[in-house]
Amino acid sequence: xxxxxxxxxxxxxxxxxxxxxxxxxxxxxxxxxxxxxxxxxxxxxxxxxxxxxxxxxxxxxxxxxxxxxxxxxxxxxxxxxxxxxxxxxxxxxxxxxxxxxxxxxxxxxxxxxxxxxxxxxxxxxxxxxxxxxxxxxxxxxxxxxx
Amino acid sequence: xxxxxxxxxxxxxxxxxxxxxxxxxxxxxxxxxxxxxxxxxxxxxxxxxxxxxxxxxxxxxxxxxxxxxxxxxxxxxxxxx
Lengths: 146, 81
Known about the structure:
The complex is a heterodimer of chains A (about 150) and B (about 80). Chain A is built from 5 helices and no strands. Chain A is mainly α and about 150 residues long. In chain A, helix 1 runs antiparallel to helix 2 and helix 2 (about 40-55) runs parallel beside helix 5 (about 110-140). Chain B is an all-alpha fold and about 80 residues long. Chain B has one domain: NADH-ubiquinone/plastoquinone oxidoreductase chain 6, subunit NuoJ (Four Helix Bundle (Hemerythrin (Met), subunit A), Up-down Bundle), CATH 1.20.120.1200. Helices cover about 85% and strands about 0% of the residues of chain B. Chain B has 3 helices and no strands. Chain B is flat and about 45 Å long. The N and C termini of chain B lie far apart (about 45 Å). The mean pLDDT of chain B is about 90. At the A-B interface, helix 2 and helix 5 of A face helix 3 of B.
């Protein structure tokens, strides 16, 4: 990345906007089973908020906030979560990812909504970590692999 | 009356698409491509595909534009003939 653009308005607006962008991403994530949106969109929106932090406050600041040792487990969390939810459905006697078989709540639709949301959270975490990592590794130096 | 909205969206879509192809300044082309993605997101929403529209707005207009700008900052800004 080129040198940091020092401007108090840009920095303040970026600081103020970041939590609202992440709140909107959480809304998109948690309403994904009923309304437009879902894990992928929410993950990309959270990653966009980190990209905004990197553009406005500098790449090192953003790398401090989302460290590589935090991102690496998050990238693997989504597929693992997917497999765990699917196998839990198989343990309860259904097919892979047959949500309604799990005796978690009395209402079948509520069980489906909860388990779809659980899968979506995993997808969102993975997409967020992956897009942030792609951005960091492209924006960093030539031999910077973080 | 929906054709009026479609016309107002499709005309800039064609113009921005041609502008992306013919522009020799790659940074301007990347920004124009972000505008193209936003118009495309509005068109998807108008076609009752809000899911695709949300993805296009987040990925097409947000993430890929940043990656294009990073790539241009690491290579050359002007296209050579």
